[in-house]
Design goal:
Length: about 725
């Protein structure tokens, strides 16, 4: 409604429809006003067609809101834009609606913001001219709105004043007509700032210079590559696959290639001109009477020379051992910005010279951008010198950050905090290796799985799982997934849990248990070094050489193999339960301001009743969490927590505030319900189920099952609390 202060969505809709009807009625009059910049007499017609297209969509909106009306105006005008004038009008609408779409109603402030944004948007969209009938009038009205916005007047008076000033500006534009008619073909006259290039050394103006150049006829070469892209064992496979299309489009639309460059360096073009006859000779060998010939002074384009890299670096044209072993290459890693400049040229050069593909796969990475997502450049001053980073954090930290923080084909933002995380991770590995070295000395310990305890089996089983995942994802070039999995395993499973758990065994009087724990520490540490070597070659090499080793370098070691042993689901579940129980007990102690060394009595139950742990697990709980396990706590004053496939109950007596515990359980129920809703939504989405990796889909299924189980347990806990509260 109009209340003389604001305009709501419904009245805005009616105003727009009335305006469209009015413009259609006056389009011929507007055509006569079409003076500047191009007096072609169709401004009114094009503007009318544009606004009517928008009016059609506005009229179709059943329940008008400011957002829906603005969207209809913007989309309709863009789709219906006709001619230059229609485009300008659509951009004015686009800017205005963008500024006001989130408002509940339009007052003087909103209308002024809309006019300003409209003019800014239109001026950006139109390269030349910067002025004209529509733009000039619109800018005048925007300026008037900014002038009057703080005046004491209602919204109707405000709008009437703006429109009146628009007519005033419009009345002045016909004065340009005589000049245009006299000029004939001249549309308009304006001053330009002409940027002329000058030589950096001499200051002389840089001018185009015509000269003969050497070209390569590209179509036959490109067609040969495209033909072989249809052959499975000859095609070049891009990762991600979407860049296959980019590669093929370049080749399908290729132009002849100018390969000559006027530079001081490079491979000189093997062409000679006879001094007497002017004959041109091109060949592998110099002319026999070289004194009668002059060699072309141009050199080959850099990309022409670098396109020979896949085979020329291996000894070609000689049939060398390196060429036999390494050609074609397995994978090329490069950026998406040089697919045509380098990748395509290597493809046809190699196809021409070697009758083969240069490499099997091309792994495409993105660009490294600054923290704001901007491309690094001298003008912005946002560049980062990698040598500075290496000096401070080390080459391995930079390498791990770059390889594990982006997915193929996606740009990467340089993040100082993630660089620090990489450095801290390497420091963690170094300290873990020092611990292992202190335990084993200079002699390689031999692993005997018959002596392995439950903790040994657990860490080796986890390493086997990680090794499977790493190997699979390395083959897929999913380096970010590999990095995250290795980070979690090394930091959490190996350092935070196994090393701590191993300390008790190392102090055991049973020498065979001690020896085997040392062997497990060594085996897992060596496995970690091998899988991390591609990501951080320097620190892993240094650690390897300081541990007992068989090869002269980690670089010539083989990929680690899984340790084969029998490990039942029951053993796996119990160890997972113990770790979860330790974490939970520690959290409870922190929550209730208890000392870590203070003893607690706990009980573990699931749907089948009391969960009885073996002697070893009970001892681990007592040692790591100062927790004693009992079947019955003989009290109703308890604290319950849902853990791994069980409920942990602690006899806390007066330390527990039942009301507070009720609130925590209610929050946990809400969290679990939200997680179940999220997982269910993803699994019901065909796009996710059909396109996501199988491992990701299975992981979400497992999460859903786990959340559902925990929800039921948590609800049971809440029911018990509610009963106690009466």
């Amino acid at each position: 409604m109009v209340n003389n202060k604001t305009i709501d969505a419904k009245i805005l809709s009616r105003m727009f429809l009335a305006g469209a009807k009015n413009m259609e009625a006056k389009k011929e009059w507007i055509n006569e006003l079409n003076v500047f910049p191009v007096p072609d007499g169709d401004t009114g017609t094009n503007m009318s067609l544009t606004i009517l297209a928008a009016a059609k969509e506005v009229g179709a909106v059943e329940e008008p809101t400011m957002a829906t009306i603005c969207k209809a105006i913007s989309n309709g005008s863009l789709r219906g834009a006709r001619g230059n004038s229609g485009v300008i009008l659509s951009q004015l609408f686009r800017g205005f609606t963008k500024a006001v779409s989130k408002a509940d109603s339009l007052g003087k402030d909103e209308i002024t913001a809309g006019f300003t944004r409209a003019v800014e948007t239109a001026y950006k969209a139109v390269m030349k001219p910067k002025e004209g009938t529509i733009l000039t009038v619109a800018k005048g009205m925007a300026d008037k709105a900014e002038e009057l916005v703080d005046e004491d007047m209602d919204v109707i008076e405000f709008c009437e004043a703006i429109v009146a000033y628009g007519y005033e500006v419009l009345s002045k534009t016909p004065d340009m007509l005589p000049v245009l008619k006299e000029a004939g073909v001249v549309d308009h006259i304006e001053e330009h700032l002409h940027q002329v290039g000058h030589s950096e050394r001499t200051g002389v103006i840089v001018e185009p210079y015509l000269s003969k150049q050497w070209f390569v006829k590209m179509k036959p070469l490109a067609e040969e590559v495209l033909k072989n892209q249809e052959i499975e064992d000859q095609r070049i496979n891009f990762v991600p696959p979407r860049f296959n299309k980019t590669f093929e489009q370049w080749l399908e639309n290729i132009e002849d290639w100018c390969i000559s460059r006027q530079l001081w360096w490079g491979h000189r073009i093997p062409a000679w001109t006879n001094k007497k006859t002017g004959e041109i000779y091109v060949g592998m060998e110099d002319p026999k009477d070289i004194e009668n010939w002059t060699q072309d002074e141009d050199v080959l384009d850099t990309w022409f020379s670098s396109a020979l890299w896949p085979f020329s670096t291996l000894g070609w044209p000689e049939n060398t051992a390196d060429l036999e072993r390494y050609f074609p290459n397995d994978v090329l890693v490069t950026g998406y910005d040089i697919i045509f400049f380098w990748v395509a040229r290597m493809a046809f050069q190699t196809r021409y010279c070697m009758k083969n593909r240069p490499f099997k796969d091309v792994l495409i990475h993105g660009l490294v951008r600054d923290t704001q997502g901007r491309k690094m450049s001298k003008s912005l001053g946002n560049g980062i010198d990698p040598m500075d980073v290496i000096q401070e954090k080390g080459a391995d930290a930079l390498r791990f950050f770059l390889t594990t923080n982006s997915t193929p084909g996606q740009d990467l933002r340089f993040d100082e905090t993630k660089m620090d995380a990489s450095w801290n991770f390497i420091n963690k590995i170094w300290n873990a290796a020092r611990y292992v070295q202190m335990q084993i000395g200079d002699t390689k310990p031999e692993l005997d799985m018959t002596k392995a305890n439950s903790v040994d089996k657990w860490i080796l089983a986890r390493f086997n799982e990680v090794l499977d995942h790493v190997s699979t994802n390395m083959d897929k070039y999913e380096l970010a997934i590999v990095g995250n999995e290795l980070y979690s395993f090394v930091w959490d499973d190996f350092c935070s849990w196994y090393i701590e758990l191993s300390k008790a065994t190392l102090y055991s009087e049973d020498e065979s248990l001690v020896a085997n724990t040392k062997a497990v520490l060594y085996t897992v540490m060596m496995g970690i070094l091998k899988v991390l070597s591609p990501f951080m070659p320097f620190v892993t090499e240094e650690i390897y050489l300081n541990l007992p080793h068989e090869k002269e370098s980690l670089n010539v070691e083989t990929w680690p193999e899984k340790v084969e042993f029998e490990y039942t689901d029951a053993e796996k579940d119990e160890m997972a339960l113990v770790i979860s129980a330790i974490q939970t007990v520690r959290e409870i102690k922190v929550e209730y301001s208890m000392k870590p060394s203070e003893d607690l009595t706990i009980s573990l139950h699931n749907d089948n009743g009391y969960v009885a742990l073996n002697t070893e697990s009970t001892a681990i709980l007592a040692r790591m969490a100062h927790a004693t396990v009992k079947e019955d706590l003989n009290t109703e004053d308890v604290l319950s927590r849902t853990i791994e496939k069980a409920v942990l109950t602690v006899a806390m007596d007066a330390l527990i505030d039942l009301e507070e515990e009720k609130g925590k359980l209610e929050k946990e129920i809400v969290r679990l319900e939200n997680e179940i809703k999220r997982c269910s939504g993803m699994l019901k989405n065909p796009g996710f189920v059909n396109k996501a990796p199988e491992a990701k889909v299975n992981a979400e299924k497992e999460k859903l099952a786990s959340y559902t189980e925990k929800l039921e347990m948590t609800k049971t806990q809440l029911d018990n609390i509610l009963k106690k509260l009466g």
